[in-house]
Design goal:
Tetrahydropterin Synthase, Chain A, alpha/beta, metal-binding, metal ion binding, binds zinc ion, 6-carboxytetrahydropterin synthase activity, EC 4.1.2.50, about 30% helix, about 140 residues
Amino acid sequence: MFILKSEIGFDMSHYLSGYDGKCGNIHGHRYRLIVKVKGTELKSTGSNRAMVEDFGFIKLILKDIHDLFDHKLVVEDDQIGRDLIKRLEGTLQNFEHVVVSYRPTAEEMSRDIFNRIKAKGINIYEVELFETPTNSCIYREEE
Ligand SMILES: [Zn+2]
């Protein structure tokens, strides 16, 4: 089996509704995203011959993920999240945010990113999302 590995980083803040502790405040991370794409066979024809996937295509998809989250506040689509967005939108200029259907933990985000990449037709094997240099979550689908 072949595994391609590609990496990108983005800066993002999030709010974890209901979290008891210092991460209960709005705060940010420098996220590091490492994705692995698998293939048992290489393409046999065309411009991508002898490749699992074109690195350029993988980079393009990672750029989309970067642009979606980079320098944004990410909140869950619950009452607190919606109230927070409403207040900040009325107060801050150039306020950009993303509302997601889940609590934006490293676990949920890595699963969401995995599924976004899979939806592009990539044979994604694994997503590893670092929230700090020493803490990360790996998401894979059960074999
Ligand atoms: Zn955090």
